[in-house]
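Dear U.,

For the methods section draft, I wanted the exact inputs and outputs in one place so we can describe them consistently. I've listed the two proteins in the order they'll appear in the manuscript figures. Please don't edit the token lines directly; just add comments below if something needs changing.

First protein:
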Amino acid sequence: MKILFVSNDPSLFVAESASRVRMRTYAAAIGELHILSSAGKDAKEEKDGNLFLHPIHSLKLFRVSILTHRARVLIKKYDIEIVSAQDPFEHGLAAFRATRGTSAKLHVQVHTDFLSPWFVKSGSWHALRISLLNRYRRKIADRVLPEADGIRVVSERVKASLVARYGTRIPDPAVIPVVVDPIAPVPAQLPSHAFTFALIAVGRLEPEKRTQDILTALKLVIVRYPMVGLFIVGAGRERRRLEKIVHSLSLGEHVIFLGERPDARALMGSAHAFIQASAYEGYGRTLVEAALARVPIITTNVGIVGEVLKDSEEVLSVPVADPIALSRCIIELVEDGAIRQQLPMRAETVVRTHLAAVGDLPTSIAADLRRLISI
């Protein structure tokens, strides 16, 4: 097969990056894989075996039109059979426009739960711009998805939301999760601290992660248990605002920001509990990683929660935007050693069963694309 991915991952142009390594495995399963992606100014056209990388350099304002033009050129030059967009938004629109009038099939990947009501809620003035952008993106998806020949989603939750909104106007979405290495790293020691119970939150510091809810919950918890603390691993636009919240809540002695860490998975294994408060997730890779790290999990009801990880059986799950519920879960783990032991044992078991059922992801993705050619 000859497939073109329309993507946005500059790290693909770094020879030994995790993204490049992953795309090599996809290319081996597919046959000939081309990737069109935004990239740094020094990135050039590159061939890596049967993986072909095509960079674009543009401002966001012109990205869709440039992606569309370049994708159309590549379709004709390489006889591309399928164009797969990494999302149903800007990249989906570019892929849709590029395939019109050609024999190439349109395939769309949906990695986020964009039909969650939280996708378009601002939550604060700080997140208003993203909320307005997401409303526009949802409208783009409404235009693109009914035109797709094939759709891949990463969870049953996302599939159910698409079917509820679009019904038979879209092809039946294929559920193919994301790649997670089932081999958990050896736990790495957390930086020096005085916490007797250490929470860890891992992820991008962006509005949709609602890390402020964790901070509010922590403020409630330390009234009863003053030696509980939180490590925050990750970087993003919310860092400065979160630091201000920590100061305003007088949590300076209870919160440690670690920034982006390559050993994030290893650090999970040394914490007493993993916690996340995301407004929405398509899948929830860090939930799987936390389960493999054998650490108790507190999470909002997003992604694969309910599908793979069930509340009170493998995780403690709470509604979105409910810091009081988060605080109760933290206190439950602090006070109940049996739950601290049982939850991670069961979570690891079901996650390993889940990953085994997923099987070889590159092969599954290639099979899903190959099916489109015969339609």
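Second protein (the one for the lower panel):
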Amino acid sequence: MGQPTWLDWARRLQAIAQSGLAYSPNQYDLERYQAVREIAVEMMASGSASAVAPIRDLFAGEAGYATPKVDVRGAVFRDGRILLVLEREDGGWTLPGGWADVGESPAEATVREVREESGYETRAMKLLAVYDRNRHGHPPIPFHAYKVFFQCEVTGGGPASSNETAGVDWFAEDALPALSTSRVTAAQIHRFFEHYRNPRWPTDFD
């Protein structure tokens, strides 16, 4: 699934406006960057058939130099099966994970997310992949994001749902459920099974 050209343009304009608003000392330039942001808002609203106001609020909440967001996911294996959680938001299954928090290393963020979403305590063992979200078949979102996947092993805990997840289970590679493709794709899961079978493989990227 390719990313629409209008979405790429809107994200890039938003990033230029955000960084300009963060660093420009000139009032006239600030007004110009506000105008650029408004163009990005209108493009996003038009392309997605959404109302302007929520997108304006979304973009206005972003401050400082614009950089990609970081989504972390844990690929946890046990007896040839992979741990997935059921997302309440869209009813699809995914590797446990979410946005990294400030002050955490990527591995720490992954372990926390796995614990919060599945109930399992884990240890990050290997960095499997660092992907540009736009290049891996995910449905589009307003912001640019990197996806960081760690292979983890269970050290304790047990299955427990959360305010974001409604189920926790282990799945064989040939019996995957309907996935939350905004978060993970079948191709990614199959790739991580290959990593599981080939532990000497290097990290994937891009």
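Candidate sentences for the figure legend, describing the second protein: The chain has a mean pLDDT of 95. The helical segments are 5-23, 27-48, 52-60, 106-118, 186-197.

Thanks,
Y.
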